[in-house]
Amino acid sequence: MRLSLVALMVGFSPAFADPPTADAVKGIDPRVFPADSDRAKELPKLLRADISKRVLEAVTRENAAWAKVTTAAEWESFRDTRIGKLIAAIGGFPDPAKAMTIKTTGEVQGDGFVIENVVYESRPGLWVTANLYRPAKPLAKMPCIVISHSHHNPKTEGELQDMGMTWARAGCLVLVPDHLGHGERRQHPFRTADDYPKPFRVSRQDYFHRYYVGTQLDLIGESLIGWLAWDLSRGIDVLHARPGADKSKTILLGAVAGGGDPAGVAAALDPRVTAVAPFNFGSPQPEDYPIPADAETKFRYFGEPYWETTRCIRRGPIDGFAHWVIVASVAPRRYVHSSEFAWDKDRDPVYPRIR
């Protein structure tokens, strides 16, 4: 059967022809459409066009559902349905450990503050490395701040250290953990320019390689953003375990460029967060500018559909948990609408919804 098919392809009758030569098969043009035809030029665009079409259908469907929300009870039903589906989509969560293991491995004394190098076990056998900034003289009540770093730099980012030291001097407990695959938790060998024979961007390797971590988690029904959000919630456990921690003031700050994504999800799913500032998540991201003329239907409510899995959460368009719904679900807790570079307030389509 296979010989007959090949023979037909090269124009011979299978009953009488000799098997085709390798050169004959090699010369067959497998393209159905001529390379310079209009149809052939459209082929590479078909998948993205289909995705865009289905996302537009999801936006239209969700806009119609949102238009029907007129009371608090209707909002709560709208919200709870979608947040429940978000939890399922990101893989759910294990039960928190009854007694989480937390270790301090070293201390750095500063001017009015102390930095503790800590590790905590967020899942059995999975350790999170973090820096904990605290006042040099602990207070009776200290607000708790957890900072979710960006996708391109770990907890050692200079501005994160500035915030940790400043707020510790002001009387707060500040925890800056490494995300999975970043900093002391990186899972690749490319740490310096000497680790690869060709030029490469050293500072971006954690970011690039966490794509593989996300893919591996997807294969087992989990998600990268789910694991990042879980680690942040366990970071709250670390701070709340401290004597003098003011649990009624628990702030989660998501740094620009990817830190806001897991911060927004963690705040939506952890009621202990009393205020959240998830930069670029829920609000327009840099790739959303300029905001489209028909923002109501053309805005990326579910994120940009590309390889950054934390910005395009699995099943978002299917199950309706747009980013703005995730961050709005923290109400009546505090939410800071925060965007990187610029904010087109008058044309931002999600801000009126969140208000």
What would you note in describing this structure?
The protein is of the alpha/beta class. It has 13 helices and 8 strands. It has an 8-stranded mixed β-sheet. The chain is globular, with a radius of gyration of 26 Å. It starts with a helix and ends with a helix. 35% of the residues are buried. Mean pLDDT is 89; it is low at 1-13.
Residue share in helices?
A: 25-40%
Gross geometry? globular
Given the structure, what is the number of helices? 13
Secondary structure class reads alpha/beta
Rg calculated over all Cα atoms? 26 Å
Overall average pLDDT:
89
Total beta-strand segments: 8
List unreliable stretches of 5+ residues: 1-13
Main sheet record: 8 strands, mixed
Task: List its traits.
8 strands, 37% helix, eight-stranded mixed beta sheet, alpha/beta, disordered N terminus, single chain, 355 residues
Summarize the structure.
About 35% of the residues lie in helices and about 15% in strands. The protein is an alpha/beta fold and about 350 residues long.
Q: Which helices and strands appear, and what pairs or packs with what?
A:
Blueprint: H1 2-9, H2 22-26, H3 38-42, H4 46-67, H5 72-89, E1 102-109, E2 113-123, E3 126-135, E4 142-148, H6 158-169, E5 173-177, H7 205-219, H8 224-240, E6 245-254, H9 260-269, E7 275-278, H10 295-298, H11 316-319, H12 323-328, E8 334-335, H13 351-354
